[in-house]
Amino acid sequence: MKELTVGKNDAGQRLDRFLGKAVPLLPASLAQKYIRCKRIKRNGARARRDDRLCEGDTLQLFINDEFFDAPKPENAYLKVGAPKLHIVYEDENILLVDKRPGLAVHPHDGAEYGKTLIDHIQAYLYAKGEWNPRGENSFTPALCNRIDRNTGGIVIAAKTAEALRVMNQKIRDREIEKYYLAVVHGAPRPAEGELKGYLFKDAVKNRVYVTDKPQPGARTCLTRYRTLDRRDGLALVECELITGRTHQIRAQFAHAGHPLLGEGKYAKPDKRYGRSYQALYSYRLVFRFTTDAGALEDLNGRSFRVEAVDFVEEYFPGFAY
């Protein structure tokens, strides 16, 4: 329990607004709940959120110590309040989450403090009691893979240090198959095949360039694809990432003359469809371990997919995938 004494400069404020400044890590929704549950009191008595504070008032706060820390990237999860996750699968080691387009996975993707996928995951595990940051020396739940902000799909989160180590190794060894759905302009020829090339990343411009021949600093990129359906000048394709380069699918299909629907970085936007972000979704994962996976061995041979993909429903209604 912490006590706060209202000073002269804080007098006259509403209780809820005062708490937002005095305890910035406490989400407004959680503050309201704590007031209703009498975990926040004024002068030892029940308080209301719209109480006007007076100089000398004493507030008793029966909340966890973590909320009194200074705001910093490591405790951004405390700002989440009620985490919102679309969980595909969960066990004691990992969490598979269907990230929706528009949500950044990490703060360094330009997202607001406390509003990223990892913040929501950490808030979820903290609320469940599966992660106690004060009881850990160094480990925090972490993401094993990333997806662009405006791309949706399955993201793997590790709940334990062993799961993080093993999963990262499996990804490096390509023992996890990653399948994407995409809508592209035109009809790829052949209908099923591979896109091979060399990809160079320009970190300053945050974009990549694909060439057909090796270039200094360029890395090999390979995507397998198959056309699933064609309608009205668009094609629905399934892509399997063999290499996992930045913006690989987007850049390779644009280079092949079939940019993704909604693409704005690697092709001129097609305003006919009114789509503001690329039609690309990491919809299925398959675990095919060829070496020991330790605590994750039960995942071997299993496949997971999202329930639905918005652009498939919109542009290819009735398609069963």
What this model shows, in words?
The protein has 321 residues and is α+β, with helices and mostly antiparallel strands. It contains six helices and 15 strands. The protein has helices spanning 15-22, 28-36, 117-128, 161-172, 248-255, 310-315; strands at 2-5, 40-42, 45-46, 58-61, 87-90, 94-99, 142-143, 152-158, 176-185, 192-202, 207-211, 219-231, 234-241, 280-287, 303-305. Strands 5, 6, 7, 8, 9, 10, 11, 12, 13, 14 and 15 form an eleven-stranded mixed beta sheet that branches. A four-stranded antiparallel beta sheet has the order 1-4-2-3. Strand 12 and strand 13 form a beta hairpin. The N and C termini lie far apart (53 Å).
Q: Approximately how much beta-strand content do the residues carry?
A: 25-35%
The number of distinct helices, counting runs of at least 4 residues, comes to 6
- Topology pattern, helix = H, strand = E: EHHEEEEEHEEHEEEEEHEEH
Mean pLDDT: 91
- What is the terminal separation in angstroms? 53 Å
| Spatial extent as radius of gyration | 24 Å
Shape: elongated
Q: What is the strand tally?
A: 15
Give the low-pLDDT segments. none
Give the biggest sheet. 11 strands, mixed
Helix proportion: 10-25%
> Which structural class do the helices and strands define?
alpha+beta
Short characterization:
Helices cover 17% and strands 28% of the residues. The protein is α+β, with helices and mostly antiparallel strands. It is elongated.
Write the layout of secondary structure elements.
Layout: E1 2-5, H1 15-22, H2 28-36, E2 40-42, E3 45-46, E4 58-61, E5 87-90, E6 94-99, H3 117-128, E7 142-143, E8 152-158, H4 161-172, E9 176-185, E10 192-202, E11 207-211, E12 219-231, E13 234-241, H5 248-255, E14 280-287, E15 303-305, H6 310-315
Parallel strand pairs: 8-14
Antiparallel strand pairs: 1-4, 2-3, 2-4, 5-6, 6-8, 7-8, 9-13, 9-14, 10-11, 10-12, 12-13, 14-15
